[in-house]
Write a structure and sequence with these properties.
The chain is α/β, with parallel strands linked by helices. 49% of the residues lie in helices and 9% in strands. It folds into 5 domains: 170 residues, P-loop containing nucleotide triphosphate hydrolases (Rossmann fold, 3-Layer(aba) Sandwich); 61 residues, Helicase, Ruva Protein, domain 3 (Orthogonal Bundle); 120 residues, Zinc Finger, Delta Prime, domain 3 (Up-down Bundle); 117 residues, no CATH class; 74 residues, GMP Synthetase, Chain A, domain 3 (2-Layer Sandwich).
Length: 613
Amino acid sequence: MAFVVSARKYRPVHFEDVVGQAHVSQTLKKALQTNHLAHAFLFCGPRGVGKTTCARILAKVINCQNVTANFEPCGECESCRAFNENASFNIMELDAASNNSVEHIRTLVEQVRFQPQQGKYKVFIIDEVHMLSTQAFNAFLKTLEEPPSYAIFILATTEKHKIIPTILSRCQIFDFKRIQVKDTVAHLQKICDAEGIDAEGDALHVIAQKADGALRDALSIFDRITSASGKKITYEDVITNLNVLDYDYFFRITDALLTEDLRQVLLIFDSVLRNGFEGDHFINGLAEHLRNLLVCKDAETLRLLEVGDSLRERYRQQAALAPVSFLLTALNLCNDCDINFKMARQKPLHVELYLIKMCYAGQAIKLAIEPVAEKKTADVREVGPNGAISLPVGGQSGSASTTSAVKSPPSVVPTSKIEEKEPLQTAQTPAPGYAEVLPPKQDSILVKEPTAAPTSSLRKTGIGGLTSLTLKDIHAEIEEAETNGGLVQEAKLTPEDLKEAWASYIDSIDKDSVKTILRGADIDINPEQITVTVGSALAESTVRQEMELMEFLRKKLHAPLLALSIKLDPSRSNAVPAKPKRLTDSEKYHAMRAVNPLVDEVRKRFDLSLENE
């Protein structure tokens, strides 16, 4: 016996067999029951959701001679048998994709004129009706609006927006929806029972999700898997044949992200690439996984999780370990990665960068909510009357302390500045790179000096070093660098130093117009910024566009924190003076006469005249 695909073999023949479209089936049955049957129907919806199937069932039940009590076709009368054998003269199907011209519609209109040979109605099913040309639609309008009493039209389309409004207004419209995963799984399980196939629940869920709401696609995938696996369908067979990423990848990489195990994150992603999956496919799967974890956070939204029972429990366990803040941050990063993926030249590196951000998202969130006072005192040590030095470490408490000899004299701050600082805890564990010292007897001081050879986590190499590096360590390194830089900038900068550096920069550039503007600017300096006063908007724009100016001045003055402020003073004029206008001989004479009237007497005495007069 020839093989028949499941989409045809198990095509519904009753309204009650239609999967996931109960709102359409019940409405049509009610219309048959109350005899309120419209003359034109339009079935809209995605592919493979049952539009043509419902149209055939409706056409069949309209002409059935022995309609059942629940308004289903009997399947045994002469009309039903003729329909099953494709020999019915009362039900005609037209494929508008290949019959979309005015001539085809005229042929259809001619057939409408003939009454049915058997039964009450003549039913015309037009599939893919959106493919009709505009002229064909217009030729069909009159017949569709006022057909004979025995004619019923059922139109089906996947693109409702392409149908002209005059057609839509003449039809009773039914919108078909995508079939839910649970309904697809139930239908596939029913087919497995009928065919004697042993299928795992997780395997059927993957098939249903891959079908994306189209039952016909799900049945096609099911036939493909059955051909490869035989009478036993496992989860491994499905993900192998469909080239689907295993759920286990996402569970493992989420565990690694939560524990900030960057080594494991990068190894898992490398395994994904070596198995032939693209980076965007992986990042979209990770985003869906994180969304499922977020759904598991609330009992009300748990029903939105469309997975098997075994995976549902695994999702619930991992969701309990994942903070909502982390899930939202990681979802946002996945979305940004997907948006920018097409523009990235090194796509694997692009995904890895976002995975690194996700790995340290927890530390970033902690730093964002850390109190400001805690940050200010993170690197400050206090030396008590007994000479012991204590250092509070952000948010930690303890009393362990160590002592060592002082290898270099520490920088000290007078005790008068201690009053400006916030109260410091004592007997804390020193931060990495610092050591407690017992200096000679002296008053209480604040020391902000690292040991001679601090071990910086930023200097670690290899994946192992990256794994142990946290954002708190990076934050401490930045604070230390700013502290050391601040010591250099404590030396007061003088206007003479600024003018010398300013003149050096002017000599280093080539544009004469920029040199003129910079030379005409009035410059002043305070401990933190340079103030440049100019006389025009053009000069202000020119100074702002000198990108290398501040970098040059910071290096020249050894002031890495130096800032720039530009003021506009219209009373000052930095504009280049305009060239004098060239005067004619006549203009020169009149100007000279205005200064000295005797010039006119000289002209008259010698009887002189101007050339242009």
